Amino acid sequence: MNEIHFVLGTITAVMLLVYWQCWRWRHKRMLELAKLVPGPPALPIVGNALIFMTQPEKQLIKIAALLEKYGQYIKFWLGPDLNICVKNPNDVRFLLTSNKVNQKGPLYNFMVPFIGQGILTGGPTWRNHRKIANPSYNKKSVLHYSTVFNKEVKELIKVLIMKDPNTTFDVYLDVVKFTTQCVCQTLMGLSKKDSGNIKRMEEVIIETPNIYDYIFTKMTHWWLSIPFVNWITGGQAKERYFIKLIDDLTSDILEKRRKDLKMDSDEEAIGIVDRYDINGELTDREIKHEIFTLFTTSQEASAKIISGVLMLLAHLPDWQEKVYQEIIEVLGPNDEYVNENDLKKLRYLDMVYKETLRYFSIAALIQRTVEEEITINDGKITLPVGTSLIIPIHEIHRDPQYWDEPLKIKPERFLPENISKRDPNAFIPFSLGTMDCLGRVYATCLIKTCVIRVLRHVQFEAEGSLDNLKLHVAISVKAAKGYNVRARRRVTVLN
What's the distance, Cα to Cα, between the start and end of the chain in Å? Predict the structure, then answer.
């Protein structure tokens, strides 16, 4: 028996060695170019995978430590996959706007079971899917949506002014209901009545953060991709539950729109569901995948940013007073409809908004696949075909080369005189290039409209210090223990 085990072990070892040598021969060019990029020593076959065998929330800390040790360009191997992380802002812009790096990286494949291939995950259809949806996100469409934003924020205000001023609460739980209604009545194209009667909506609002946490856990624990391990740990059952939940929600939205599909006289008012359905190129499954992609990236992300702004203002009472007084002085004392021109006039609000985006990055990192060789770092580094390019947005937004006291929250860093001293490419909250954030105009209008009108009626307070604020850094960056504030009603009249 021992001899059999020895023979089998020897055969296995020889096969692995042959595979390893064949792989190295086929990837000679990649190996040669990789030598020019600094990084930790890699083991045969597994590469640097052992470095990243840790808790999900510590994965990006590992990348940050490597950047600190090796500089703005680092490489690491995850098995046979070459990953090159680039932190230099100028090269980041060059890469993200290049047509040689125009596909999402392999990490996005973990999202495919839930939302298929498309706008968020890439694949052969993303360009066409984005092109169809794009008119629903442009400035003309957002002008139409402003009416809904202004109307729905009144409901949020009613909730906030009834809070006990001595009780701390997580404002996200209230804000996300507001953003959900806004997204349903604009991008989804639903009526107010239908928006309040969507199958499993409350469940989706609660479970969406858990879905993304589950995806991130699979991204960072390679062994969970083994079907047996995923089954025995309960992941397979959880995944089936999430997929069914998403399908129930999106099927109901699609069905509701098909029952009441009306072409508006102004094409800009058409929601994304109608655009996809009228276009006729997508299957029902593809439409539902894009519905959930654009639904959750709009309502959840916007809710987190609004909550972040309100929480920062609670911790920075001087800035809260600046923003409030600016609203009163520029827009007048009465709580009236907020339009696009109003948003452009409020520079203090814009500074707080941008500092929130810097501190709580919408995407902690993004990944692209290099499709053609491309040279960076003044010609010193060439990224080989097949490389997984990593852009660590969270780390760029915290780089002391560009940000004074980067771990502190300082809205004044977005004063014009401070912006002029900083590399403009060091601030990329919505990414760059053809795969940038589709909803940047939509989100900015929604978020600022909400904050303006809420601040007219509510003064926010906070406990503790921002120095003790803990972050949960995964697919996005959020406050680990919630967006906790106290709300005190201002002496004002709700129109």
Answer: 86
HSE-up of 214 (CA within 13 Å, CB side)? 20
- With the CA atoms of 110, 111, 112 and 118 taken in that order, what torsion angle do they form, in degrees rounded to the nearest 10? -130
Determine the Cα–Cα distance for residues 301 and 362; give it in Å rounded to an integer. 7
Q: Are the CB atoms for 157 and 453 separated by under 8 Å?
A: yes
Spatial CB neighbours of 376, under 8 Å, sequence gap ≥ 6: 73, 86, 88, 91, 94, 95, 382, 383
Q: Is residue 436 part of a domain?
A: yes
For 385, how many CA atoms within 13 A lie in the half-sphere containing its CB?
A: 6
Any idea which of 21-30, 232-241, 272-281, 329-338 has the lowest mean pLDDT? 21-30
Residue 267: pLDDT above 70? no
Cβ–Cβ under 8 Å, residues 81 and 341: no
- Identify the residue whose tokens are 């990944």: 367
CB 397 within 8 A of CB 391: no
What are 168's two structure tokens?
Answer: 């701390």
pLDDT digits (tens, 9 = 90+) for 301-346: 999 999 999 999 999 999 999 999 999 999 999 998 999 889 999 9
Residue 180 belongs to a domain = yes
Tokens 């809420």, located at residue? 454
Q: Which of 332, 367, 354 has the alpha carbon at shortest distance from 409? A: 354
Apex 267 CA angle, 266 and 271, nearest 5: 115
pLDDT tens digits along 409-463: 999 999 999 999 999 999 999 999 999 999 999 999 999 999 999 999 999 999 8
pLDDT the model gives residue 10: 73
Report the mean per-residue pLDDT for the chain.
91
> How many angstroms separate the CA atoms of 236 and 394, rounded?
31
40 in a domain, yes or no? no
Helix axes 126-133, 272-279, angle to 10 degrees: 120
Token digits for 418? Answer: 């401070």
For residue 256, give the 3-state DSSP assignment. Answer: helix
The reply to whether 284 falls in a domain is yes
222-247, pLDDT tens digit by residue? Answer: 788 888 888 999 989 999 999 999 99
Residue with tokens 């960076």: 376
Structure-model confidence comparison of residues 45 and 492, the more confident one: 45
CATH number at 437 reads 1.10.630.10
pLDDT of 21 above 70:
no
Number of structural domains in the chain? 1
User: Mean pLDDT, to the nearest integer, of 269-279?
Assistant: 91
CA–CA gap between residue 190 and residue 196 (Å, rounded): 9
Show the domain range for 449.
Answer: 49-489
Residue 251: phi and psi, rounded to 5, are: -65, -40
